[in-house]
Write a structure and sequence with these properties.
The protein is of the alpha+beta class and about 140 residues long. The chain has 5 helices and 6 strands. A 6-stranded mixed sheet has the order 2-5-4-3-1-6.
């Protein structure tokens, strides 16, 4: 299993929006590195759902339920999307400021490549953020 972090602006599409829909395609990615990450995703992989811009926090966990296919928002064949479904809302959001303050996460791509919208993360990073989410 692989682990990912996927960003969305909550006023455009939030974790709660995904919960209401039950399943949705993750589209509109127009960065080659992020696109390559979408292509690498496998059914059953887990990703953190990150609210960008306003909250700047990991909010929940989503599951990849369909692997990469043509993004329906464009006719350009090089762009893909995946389908995701909600798995679990975190007990407490994990804010970017706290992620940056945690030395165990200093090498995380969220810290190093902050503008990337879809990124891979390690199992250790996933577990550390889960640990942080259980704190009040």
């Amino acid at each position: 299993m692989n682990y990912w972090l996927m960003k969305s602006e909550p006023d455009v599409f939030s974790y709660d929006d995904l919960v209401k829909k039950g399943r949705e395609h993750w589209d509109g990615v127009r960065n080659y590195t992020a696109r390559n990450n979408l292509r690498a995703m496998k059914k059953g992989d887990l990703a953190f759902f990150y609210h960008s811009n306003t909250d700047k926090a990991v909010i929940g966990i989503i599951e990849i339920v369909k692997e990469a296919y043509q993004d329906p928002t464009t006719n350009e064949e090089q762009w893909v999307c995946v389908d995701v479904a909600p798995k679990e809302k975190l007990k407490h959001p994990v804010y970017l400021i706290d992620i940056k303050a945690n030395p165990k996460l200093a090498e995380m791509k969220l810290v190093k490549l902050g503008r990337l919208s879809v990124m891979d993360i390690t199992k250790k990073e996933f577990d550390e953020i889960m640990r942080m989410s259980r704190k009040s």
